[in-house]
Write a structure and sequence with these properties.
With about 120 residues, this protein is mainly alpha-helical. It has a domain at about 55-95. It has helices spanning about 5-10, 35-40, 55-60, 85-95. The longest helix has 10 residues, at about 5-10. The mean pLDDT is about 85.
């Protein structure tokens, strides 16, 4: 067997992208008329979707952001503070405030030589 023949036979075994690898036919097919008589009934459970930021952090990174590090209790929201002066006042009270670093002035694009020598 040549290498190209082997590769063509091997490539034919790879399933199509985004397609099921198990396809049912007959009464087990998805829209078959006799499916209700043959297939087992599934229990209808109502799922509650929790898309809060805390649930997304727990699902994505595996960390519980609402658990207290000191007592392992549950934290809750008290307020959302958007004013910079209020945030600064609270963080200064907690000894957690530091002045932000000064912004550097913007720079132009880097200069490249007119001709580049490639080996």
């Amino acid at each position: 067997m040549t290498a190209s023949t082997f590769l063509s036979r091997l490539a034919s075994l790879v399933p199509r992208p985004r397609a099921n690898t198990v396809v049912y036919s007959g009464v087990l097919a998805g829209n078959a008329t006799g499916r209700k008589k043959v297939a087992p009934k599934t229990a209808k459970t109502k799922r509650v979707l929790d898309s809060s930021w805390a649930a997304l952090m727990r699902h994505s990174y595996g960390i519980d952001v609402l658990s207290c590090r000191k007592c392992n209790g549950r934290m809750r929201f008290v307020a959302v503070i958007l004013k910079r002066s209020e945030v600064k006042r609270i963080l200064q009270h907690l000894c957690m405030w530091s002045d932000p670093l000064p912004l550097e002035p913007a720079r132009g694009p880097p200069e490249y030589p007119d001709e580049l020598d490639f080996p």
